[in-house]
Fold this protein.
Amino acid sequence: MVVQRTSVGLDVHARSVVASALDGTTGEITERRLTPAHEDVAAWIAGLPGPVKVTYEAGPTGFGLARFLTERGVEVEVAAPSKLMRPSGDRVKTDMRDARHLARLLHAGQIVPVAVPAAATEAARDLVRAREDARGDLMSARHRVAKLLLRQGIVWSGGKAWTGVHDRWLRAQRFGSAPLQLTYEVAYETMLAAVARRDRLDQAIADLAADSAFTPVVHRLGCLRGVSTLTAFGLAVEIGDWHRFPGRSIGAYLGLVPAESSSGATRSQGGITKTGNGHARRLLIEAAWHHRPAYRAPGVDLRRRWAVASPAAVDRGRRANRRLQARWAHFDARGKRSTVANAAIARELAGWCWSLAVLED
């Protein structure tokens, strides 16, 4: 086992990097304020007594620095900010003190690292999150159109909204006031632009899901009800390496386990912790609702997804669908609040997703 001689803590910002290096042999501390250029950081680290190990907090600057240093033979651990131990009495926070604190934690082996995704995985993850943003923008744009009409006393009553029929009705709306007409047209055009952007991202995700390193996992996850191509691809890129943890811990990783505050003989549990990857958690929460209706014959979409999966994955998916629907029926029979029951179903669904993701075809 190689133990580093020099532990380096970096406080990384968009326009500066503050570095603190702790020599484990002499106890000497070397500190420097650097530019955010990766080459400058690597050059300064190269002048330190080796072997060297580096850590910095995961944040908005991404993982580019970690990948750059790793390619040059420097061991890097990107620290999970929520897991960093901080003295309760420390009321002074500066960039240099933060870097020094990271270096000491690294030297003591107290850093909890996050997984650094490959560049291709991070790009796919950004694509999925861009689609999620487009979905939110579309919802806001549709609300603005609907509320503008509502203020004028115009309400759609011809069936389901946001269909082709509803769209023709929207395009037929006219107002006697020129400013109001312009406002409505701008709101409607904004909605159309949001639809086009979402559809473009949907197509890009579908193409990548059909032919990429994530395709086998997407096909296996698609054997579950409520896990369409978009959901399966989103889970695949957000989780990344499913072998990092066992199936029992994936619920905790995604923040789907109840919070707990226990002392002595008293044990109190609250709502789910909502820690970890919120994007993957949202996908599972939405997918879990699809398991509430009775499970009989698979639908057309589910059969289409089964056709591209292996027999072992289809069999496991079929068993998962039956199990999750039975759990929903049990909760409903007990009168369990639906949102609480759905969180429990999502937690178990996460375990079934893990079992399919690690399944060998």
In short: The radius of gyration is 26 Å. The chain has a mean pLDDT of 94. Residues 36 and 74 are 17 Å apart (CA to CA). Residues 216-357 form one domain.
